[in-house]
Amino acid sequence: MDRGLYCWWVVNLLVVRVTAKIHRSSGPSEWIAKKLNSLGRPFGRAVDIASGAGRHSFLLSELVSDVTAIDNNPELSKYFKETRINLVCIDLEQPTWPLNDHFYDIVLVSNYLYRPHLTNTFELVGPGGFLVYETFGEGNERFGKPSDPNFLLKPGELRKLASDEFVVIEDFFGEVGRPQVAVKSRFFARRMEHLSE
Ligand SMILES: C[S@@+](CC[C@H](N)C(=O)[O-])C[C@H]1O[C@@H](n2cnc3c(N)ncnc32)[C@H](O)[C@@H]1O
Predict the structure, then answer these.
(1) C-alpha distance from residue 196 to each of 102, 121, 160, 163 (Å)
(2) What tens digit of pLDDT does each residue of 126-176 get?
(3) What is the CATH number of the domain that holds 104?
(4) What is the 3-state secondary structure (H, E, C) of 84-133?
(5) Among 37, 48, 50, 106, which one is least packed by beta carbons within 10 Å?
(6) In this predicted structure, what is the pLDDT of residue 195?
(7) Residue 33 counted as domain residue
(8) Which residues constitute the domain of residue 70?
């Protein structure tokens, strides 16, 4: 085989293997999968906030026919080609919240935090809908990244933000051992079906 062609083939093989490894190691969160499975009935619309390559959007699409994945990185579109998931590329950190008057039956956030729009994120949950939120918490800096306080939830922070319209089903804050040792905040809540006047 020609030397140049051989080098190209080896590099290509490595790229394919590394890409496959990255995808395998970034399966959905066990906790999120468990919460979604517990919902047990088909829902109308779901959104995956700051979806990345969509590891949870794909889980959502098993439950819900109408899934929107939102991220500001247009390069992610390759992961959503030929799927039923609608990737919307917008900046979720612009001063004016871009999702005003959008309501979903499931709002999912994983490994993402932008405090100035946290209240707006709660507002995305329609009557009877669910918020499933898992990200890193204060103290995670002991174990690695993220370590910036702007990216770390405080204990009880989401519960404090939830209005009376939300019933908190689970609110965990602490160290976890999987998939790696970290401090995690896990919040699962439902917005009441009939909102108070
Ligand atoms: C750590 S990744 C988490 C991805 C995914 N939620 C997951 O758990 O696999 C954070 C994601 O937030 C997205 N992101 C960061 N800043 C953003 C912004 N201003 N607007 C929308 N998405 C943003 C990034 O592009 C990235 O995909």
Answers:
(1) 19, 19, 19, 11
(2) 999 999 999 999 999 999 999 999 999 999 999 999 999 999 999 999 999
(3) 3.40.50.150
(4) CCEEEECCCCCCCCCCCCCCEEEEEEECCCCHHHHHHHHHCEEEEEEEEE
(5) 37
(6) 61
(7) yes
(8) 3-191
Ligand 1 binding residues, C-beta < 6 A:
50-52, 55, 71-73, 91-93, 110-112
- Percent over 70 (pLDDT), the chain: 86
Of ligand 1's listed atoms, the one at least distance from the Cα of 55 is 9
Q: Give, for ligand 1, the residue of 23, 87, 112, 117 to mutate: max count of ligand atoms closer than 8 Å to Cβ.
A: 112
If you measure from the C-alpha of residue 7 to the centroid of ligand 1, how many angstroms do you get, rounded to a whole number? 35
Query: What does the alpha-carbon distance between residue 74 and residue 52 come to, in Å, rounded to a whole number?
Result: 10
Closest residue to atom 25 of ligand 1, CA basis: 73
Examine the pLDDT at 55 and tell me if it is beyond 90: yes
Give the total number of structural domains in the chain.
1
Question: What letter does residue 196 receive in the DSSP assignment?
Answer: -
Report CA(112)–ligand 1 centroid distance (Å): 6
pLDDT of residue 10: 44
Instruction: Give the global pTM.
Output: 0.88
Q: Work out the burial of residue 192: count CB atoms within 10 Å of its CB; fewer than 13 is exposed, 13-18 middle, 19 or more buried.
A: middle
